[in-house]
Amino acid sequence: MSSPSRPVTVLDKPAVLAGLFEVWRDIDALVGELGDTQWQTATPLPGWNVHDVIAHVIGVESMLQGVATPEVDIDVSTLDHVRNDIGVMNERWVRSLRDLSGAELLETFRSTTAQRRQALSDLSNAQWNDVGFTPAGPDSYGRFMRVRVFDCWMHEHDIRDAIGAPASTGELVGPAGDLALDEMATSMGFVIGKRAGAPDGSRVSLELTGPLGRAINVAVDGRAKVVDDFGDDDPTSTIQLDGLLFTRLAGGRVSLAEHADAIKYGGDEAVGRRVVEHLNYVI
């Protein structure tokens, strides 16, 4: 038997589910008392308001429960903010749920996530580690669920931005944020090596500060890859910024121009700046 072309990501099921269930609870609490006007507030995502973001989360979790994507009255692929087949699926769910009131949508969110909690809790370890489709390419179902933590966590902060309810330090600290950053870290080799074109021999350290603080280190040696550290070598470029700002830039939710003064560079500043300019990798 030939070995797989890429390693399978094996993740602790209770840890990932703790993060996923936490972010669902946080979203529930965040939108639970919204008024009608707040549900219609635009988010940083083009074409989507708060109602649409919750509808999107419902749609993905419904799909994972085996519910067919609904038909809608227009060809959503023609919309400016729909860029690929996944975007088409997302938009069909969003449009199909637009007639629900905020209260009705919240009840649908609660019933859908309750079904998902039960289904995920009932998964065997073999099913959890089984390799199949994920948005990051073929990998374990557990990896897919970590992607779901990332997606839902990002959308929590989309809603927070829209309604003017930024997360406190206590609200940022927890398994959901940690897992979201774990997932984002896996893409930094691609961002730094491919998108930013860091030259061979580069050692780039993203130094995230604040409640989401951590270091993400990428070494370029033929190809760029995330490493725990650089051994006895110093980084050739350092980039220091707040952890939440990192996630908003990487997700394309805020513009670099508005936050350029909040980022500090060390070492080869040209490479560091090029990395930050190409940080927006989320589709």
UniProtKB/TrEMBL annotation:
InterPro entries with a match to the protein in the record: DinB/YfiT-like, Maleyloyr_isom, MDMPI_C-term_domain, MDMPI_metal-binding
SUPFAM superfamilies: DinB/YfiT-like putative metalloenzymes
Domain Mycothiol-dependent maleylpyruvate isomerase metal-binding: 22-160
Entry GO MF terms: metal ion binding
Residue stretches making up the MDMPI C-terminal domain: 178-271
Entries under Gene3D superfamilies matching the protein: dinb family like domain (1.20.120.450)
The protein's name: Mycothiol-dependent maleylpyruvate isomerase metal-binding domain-containing protein
Organism: Mycolicibacterium tusciae
